[in-house]
Write the structure tokens for this entry.
Amino acid sequence: MPSCEFVHGDANNWLQTWCAGQDWKAQRAVVFLDPYGMSVAWETIKAIADTHAIDLWVLFPFAIGANRMTPDDMLPGKDWAVILCKVFGTSDWINQFYKRQSNTDLFGSQHDSVTKIVGADEILQYFLDRLRTVFPHVVEKPMILYNSNNSPMYALCFAAGNVKGGKIALKIASHLARTR
Ligand SMILES: C[S@@+](CC[C@H](N)C(=O)[O-])C[C@H]1O[C@@H](n2cnc3c(N)ncnc32)[C@H](O)[C@@H]1O
């Protein structure tokens, strides 16, 4: 058996098929997802979690991706909204990230407005909460990666799929995440 195999193809499709096709009673794995942008589909994360046998490292672009795709005073356009739904695996982010208000002015006209009520940190927390819906163990404080101007870009998140074995993995990963 080769020790290394390079596969060309769409990583979301490949991982979902691979996760569903292995016998996870007899093996364990570590997956590292290293995207530039918002390209990891929630279905991929769910497929990994469903094995209950994989430890996942995933670089989540909370600041340069999700935060920038959510404008302050209006909802994202359709294309970005579709990507956000694909990445979070739900459209619930709209209710968590935005407050809708309806005000009536002195002349009785109604004005609807939408305001973003979260920043990058809350968006990261939302992603971690999403991970917690499918993984038994998720690192509480992921390592934040900054650009040369010291602005946050990505969070290196860790989640362990196995209820029993994941506890020690979480301990080690939490330690690594604090070592910057
Ligand atoms: C940050 S780079 C990965 C760098 C790599 N880990 C390394 O150390 O060289 C992200 C890569 O993922 C690729 N990519 C993005 N979406 C993908 C997908 N759905 N399937 C496969 N590759 C994808 C991009 O083309 C890019 O080459």
The mean pLDDT is 94.
